[in-house]
Amino acid sequence: MTNRTLDELDLKLLQALQLDGRAPFNRIAAVLGVSDQTVARRFRKLRATVGLRVLGMTDELRLGRSSWLVRMQCTPDAAEKLADALARRADTSYVALISGGTEVVCSMKPRNRADRDELLLDRLQRTPRVIGLNAYCILHRFYGDRLGWLGKASALTPAEESALRPGPVEPPPGTATVDAVDEVLLAALFHDGRATIAQLQSESGHSEDVVHRRLERLRAEGVLYYGVQYSPELMGHDVGAMLWLTVAPAALSTVGRALAGHREVEFAAASTGRVNIVAAVRCRGTEELYAYLTDRIGALDGVLMVESALILRQIKQLALSGVPSGGRAGY
Predict the structure, then answer these.
(1) What does pTM read for this prediction?
(2) Residue ranges of the HTH asnC-type domain (predicted)?
């Protein structure tokens, strides 16, 4: 993965934070063979140059909640306003303008069926100048969530990666549950995944021991993980695109696993609908996107049709999934 503004140490730090967003700077420094001050300085630089943020993410599937990718066709004067309104909602994690600026794509996780129906069946259907809507329920993720795109950078050596990776998480069977205190902690970490224990104590009103125990439990149960938000354009990957694939049912799993292994893919999932795989990709330019579509996608057996749309502008980018457990706002 080449880039325009980042050197090898920057990429190593980004990948280290993708592995463990709350890793202390001194532990990262020890593994990378630099000083604590160097890591802190690089962290501040990345916040300024590529918009680095560490986010505490909630795995809504572990809480028994569904995830949706919604594609809306609008009149030319409406798309940007709709995208801005959707971005203000707490239950959306990704909002972008695509296809000449007349379409909006949005990743959303309604907390319950009533919230889902209120948005998909009522509010969006009645929104003026929305002339078409397709909603895809995510059935299975092949890549994304905990497996961030930075993991494909291969900046860290295997030994460095092993030293920085937190212990494995094997969530118990069934769905997890959270209470009001958990939701406060998840919401605080969503805004700043590296919030200090003192800050989390202040937010929750509970002791340091209680906060520690709850964070460990949420992680052990697979509810809480950490993601890294940044601007891939500033790393040389200027062209983003959404792909909608129609795949023969017998090839769905094979194609999905193949997509997960492609360096260009930052998200891929099986979905409901005639279009049964949705994916997001990043390339260094339109020629690279063309080569990817023809050489990589075109070589996959079972792919019957592909539609691609350039991502013109990302209004909200908190990864294609993962939202705070509590709260809603806006639209």
Answers:
(1) 0.80
(2) 6-48
